Structures are given as structure tokens and as C-alpha cells.
Known about the structure:
By secondary structure, this protein is of the alpha+beta class. It folds into two domains: 1-27; 37-129, CATH 2.40.50.140. The protein has two helices and six strands. The chain has helices spanning 2-25, 76-81; strands at residues 37-47, 53-60, 66-73, 94-101, 108-116, 122-123. It has a five-stranded mixed barrel. The longest helix is centred in the N-terminal third of the chain and has 24 residues, at 2-25. It is globular. The N and C termini lie far apart (50 Å).
Amino acid sequence: xxxxxxxxxxxxxxxxxxxxxxxxxxxxxxxxxxxxxxxxxxxxxxxxxxxxxxxxxxxxxxxxxxxxxxxxxxxxxxxxxxxxxxxxxxxxxxxxxxxxxxxxxxxxxxxxxxxxxxxxxxxxxxxxxxxx
Length: 132
């Protein structure tokens, strides 16, 4: 009887640990999903990686000061389903990007939509979750 109860307790503890890590990893709490920010700039780097990709964009303010913004998106498999390839955002690519900004005001956000300046093509990372 003791062994059975011990086994159940260990299983419950493991499940709780795994569930807590999964929820923490996928939390978007740092982004304010009630707000949107749109900036225009030049791609500095596209980190097309798992588990999350980051698009780094140099944004110039009215005074000419450049700030690098970071935009988080899904991993490569989801981006591929959304039609987004690493080559779509080579360094130097001009774009306008809309995101849910960081709650703490840092220059970063959760990428919602990007429009490449050269051809006005839109890129929406969330489209990779659509069931077809």
C-alpha cells in the first residue's frame, strides 16, 4: 500500500514539474497583448531558430539615433507553414513591423505582422498555426 501511494506521489510531482516548466516556457506574459506598436527599420539579423525565432531590426528615431528592436516569433517549422523563410529577411531588408510590445518598455515585442518595403508583402507568423 505504501509503495502504491509513494508511486502516485512521485508521478504527481513529476507531472507538476513538467507542466510548470511547459507553461513557464510558453508564457507570453512579458508582452502586452492589449497594445500594439508599429516601427519601420532595417533588418539587422533574423535568428531563425527553435524554440523561438527573433527578428532584430534597427530602428532610427527622428534624431537619427538607432535602436535595435527584437521581435519574437515561432520556431522555423511554424514560420515555414506561415510562408516565412529565413531568406525573406536578409540583413539590410527594409520593413514595417507590428507587435505586441514588452510590458516593461524595452524595445521588443511579439511579432504580429511585418511588411517588406520592397514589394509590400505581408508576413504573419501566427498564420503557421492555421489548420488547413
